[in-house]
Every structure is written in structure tokens, then in C-alpha cells.
Amino acid sequence: MLPKPVKQKKKRRAFQKSSSKSAAMERADRAFSYFIRQRDANEAGVCKCISCNSNIHWTGITNGHFIGRSNQRLRYDEENCAAQCRACNTIACGKSNRVFHYPGLKRAGRKKMKDVKRRHEEGLEARHGPGIVDQLRERGRELQKTSRAHFDEITQKYRKICEENGWLVG
Ligand SMILES: [Zn+2]
Questions:
Q1: Is the pLDDT of residue 159 over 80?
Q2: Domain coordinates of the chain in residue numbers?
Q3: Between 112 and 66, where is the model more confident?
Q4: Confidence of residue 106 (pLDDT cuts 50, 70, 90)
Q5: Buried-state track 76-95, b at ≥16 Cβ within 10 A, e below 16
Q6: Cα 90 to ligand 1 centre (Å)
Q7: Three-point CA angle 170, 118, 136, nearest 5°
Q8: What's the gap between Cα 32 and its chain centre?
Q9: Residues 143, 148, 153, 154: is their CA dihedral positive or negative?
Q10: 15 CA distance to ligand 1 centroid (A)?
Q11: How far apart are CA 68 and CA 92, in angstroms?
Q12: What pLDDT is stored for residue 15 in this prediction?
């Protein structure tokens, strides 16, 4: 009888701990995404997708990471991120491959993914200079410790920048 509640208590504590850190990461993601999308918008609030150049209002576009979000060093890197339309972001993540069940379509999906990635690379080079992708890869090798405090710091920083620019705060 005794071990059961102890186990549950432990479990609950572990869950709360992980949920508060992941909640802090979610808040940081949101604050940073609001910053990136409004930074990339013109005066009318319209962004150009970094990969396909389509014009989309910032509220309907995503924050696209060139090197994916699982790299915590680059997750909140301003040069690694740019406004990207939902379709290109989904394709670049490889998620759209799930849609391509048949071998021919799968190949087409892979080709499309490479295409989006290449144009994303060109877009970043146009913006930050030709060495940017190598620089990002190099930077991405640095270790980034993650903690609740780290995510809170990111949240504060980007909420403040948005506020100072008179933008919507995420
Ligand atoms: Zn696009």
C-alpha cells in the first residue's frame, strides 16, 4: 500500500518538472516566432516566403528554421530563422513525405524537399551572405544547455523587442 502513493508522487513531480520546462520552451518558441515573422514583414504586414517568395501576411506564415529546431543552439538563432510559408516549412521538415505513399510520389516528394531546401539556402545567402550556411552548421555544433531559465530569458528578450517595435507580443 505504501509504495503506490510514493511512486505516484514521484511520477507526478517528474511530469510537472518536464512540463514546466517544455511549457517555458513553448513560450519561448512563440515569442521568438512573433519576432521573426514581424521582423520579416513589410509595412503592410506581408512576408515573402524565404523558399518560394509567395507573399503571405505574417499572421498566416510560419517561422522556418534552416537547421531544424531540434538543434537547440540554432533554435532561436535570428540568422537560422526566416518567415516561411506553411507548405514550404512542412515539405522541408519531411512531414509531407507521409502523404506520398507510392514510390513515384515519394521520389517526387524527396525532389520537392531538396528543391525547397536549396531555395531556402539561396534565400539565406541573399540575406546574410554566401558563407551563411557553413557558418550556421559551424555554430550548430556548439553546445546549448537548455533550462527553464534559458527559455525564460529568450521569451523576455523577444517579447521586449516586439514591444519596443510596437509589434504584437507573442
Ligand atoms: Zn513557400
A1: yes
A2: 40-144
A3: 66
A4: confident
A5: bbebbbbbbbebbbbbbeee
A6: 9
A7: 60
A8: 9
A9: positive
A10: 37
A11: 9
A12: 37
Residue 129: φ, ψ to 5°: 100, 160
For the chain, where are the alpha helices, taking DSSP H only? 3-39, 72-75, 86-93, 103-128, 132-139, 148-164
Cα(6) to centroid(ligand 1), Å: 51
Q: What is the model's pLDDT at position 13?
A: 41
Residue 162 has pLDDT above 50, yes or no: yes
pLDDT at 102: 61
Between the CA of 51 and the centroid of ligand 1 the distance, in Å, is: 5
Distance 29 CA to ligand 1 centre (A): 20
| Vertex 55: Cα angle to 134 and 70 (nearest 5) | 40
Residue (of 99, 94, 134, 133) closest to 111 by Cα position: 94
